[in-house]
């Protein structure tokens, strides 16, 4: 029984450490709706808070995503959106990159736990292109970037 409680506590901690932010805009609302449909089909057990960055949408949420409204250029909107998200980690997604395959929540949780343990990791990026150069067992690429190796402008 204590083992089950430990897992539940850990699960809650992880869920409070990560939010998902999809960057979109009002003129791409049709694209975002398609993105949200793919997201909800392929990540059914997602337990993280989900946000979408729009500009002046009057709704509170769309397809389970809470709306953050912010006008301005791309960078300004992103910075202001991140100020409204209160988790230490954010999974940043773009509205025109649809999630086409099922997401393994366990895998996402493991990567998040790795970042929580190792504070030198600045971000984790996923990709499935360039398979000839970089290849993992799954065919996907995983990039871990250490903070001290990132250029600050």
List its traits.
disordered N terminus; 153 residues; globular; alpha/beta; two-stranded antiparallel ribbon; single chain; five-stranded mixed β-sheet
What's the total helix number? Answer: 4
Helix/strand structural class: alpha/beta
Mean pLDDT: 80
Low-confidence stretches: 1-13, 130-136
**H/E series, N to C?**
HEHEEEHEHEE
Helix content: 25-40%
* Main sheet summary: 5 strands, mixed
Summed up, what is this model?
This protein is of the alpha/beta class and 153 residues long. The protein has helices at residues 2-17, 29-42, 74-83, 105-117; strands at 18-23, 49-54, 61-62, 65-69, 89-94, 121-127, 141-146. The strands form two sheets. Strands 3-4-2-1-5 form a five-stranded mixed sheet. A two-stranded antiparallel ribbon has the order 6-7.
Account of the protein in words:
- By secondary structure, the chain is an alpha/beta fold.
- It contains four helices and seven strands.
- It has helices at 2-17, 29-42, 74-83, 105-117, and strands at residues 18-23, 49-54, 61-62, 65-69, 89-94, 121-127, 141-146.
- The strands form two sheets. Strands 3-4-2-1-5 form a five-stranded mixed β-sheet. Strands 6-7 form a two-stranded antiparallel sheet.
- Strand 1, helix 2 (29-42) and strand 2 form a beta-alpha-beta unit.
- The radius of gyration is 17 Å and the shape is globular.
- The model is unreliable at 1-13 and 130-136 (pLDDT under 50).
